[in-house]
Design goal:
By secondary structure, this protein is an alpha+beta fold. The chain is built from eight helices and 19 strands. Strands 1, 2, 3, 4, 5, 6, 7, 8, 9, 10, 11, 12, 13 and 14 form a 14-stranded mixed β-sheet that branches. The longest helix is centred in the N-terminal third of the chain and has 27 residues. About 25% of the residues are buried.
Amino acid sequence: MNNVLEFETRATVERQAREWLVRLDGDSPLDDLESRSLQEWLDQHPSHRAELTRVAQFWSQANVLTELAVPLKRVTRAPRRNPARHTPLVFAAASILIAAVILVAWRWQMVTGASNGTYGTAIGEQRTIPLPDGSAVELNTDSQAQVEYSPADRKIRLLRGEALFTVAHNTLRPFEVYAGNTMVRAVGTAFSVTVAEREVAVTVTKGIVEVAEVGSSSATDGTVRGKVEIRSHRLGTLKAGQTTQVGENPDHIQVQQLPAPELARRMAWQEGYLEFSGEPLSEVVAQINRYSPVTLQIADPQLASIAIGGRFRVGDLDAVLDVLRANFGIRTTQVDERSIRLSAARPR
């Protein structure tokens, strides 16, 4: 069965909040239809009321903050009073309400949205992003992720690269990672996701995750602006020590059980190392190039299949070149400051 989730961009919610603020601050009160429409918009998601409150604070609209602090239906039909009357009482009440709303908004942001935003790493850089609920995202080299926390959801979008997700247990707020056409859902676990050109790799180091294919479509009838439908199709589950790769049009997933040494090797980047145990040189070069602005190029095709083993500190290109020269008979030639050519050493 497909699950349909609705997302609204922050810009859309902010624009809608500004439109409602202009209407609420007008000379005439809202009519019944407008009151119902506003109430429905506020009930759609907690971020709507929070955004309207934030915009009202920014514009210093004390009367709107007052309306937001009490039941909406009791104030939207009330005529605007003469501002010259009861001035001390009005300002005192407004000050108390503003302070209360600011406190509530601050606490909501600290709990659910303080880390919202886009985070990235440069080539060779690694970065850990702590999240408000105790979860964490560890970005590998040249990676980018977008955090979207709300009172009901915990969503991360891995835009490129690789990341390890350590998830705090919370059955009421599932943790969802979106990458390419893939969604990974967990409650309390740890897993890594890698985005490649045409596939997404998922490896679980702790707990269980659910893997699904997702697709999106924008509303086109003109009645709902800024909303996108996200449909998901469950592909299967992964347990600790298992991995899979999701292609472009999957019907299910092929699960591979990893021996403990192989799982540790794949996760070695967390400790700042790259480990190889018989991978072909072509794969080793592809991995090393992810961590260095200087790229290695295989000049002789016959070298591509040479099995390589070793443990290297991330970014220590000189050590890699020394091993290739000394142990595998590979000649290295500096082409320019950004590239090095690998070729077969001449026989002595």
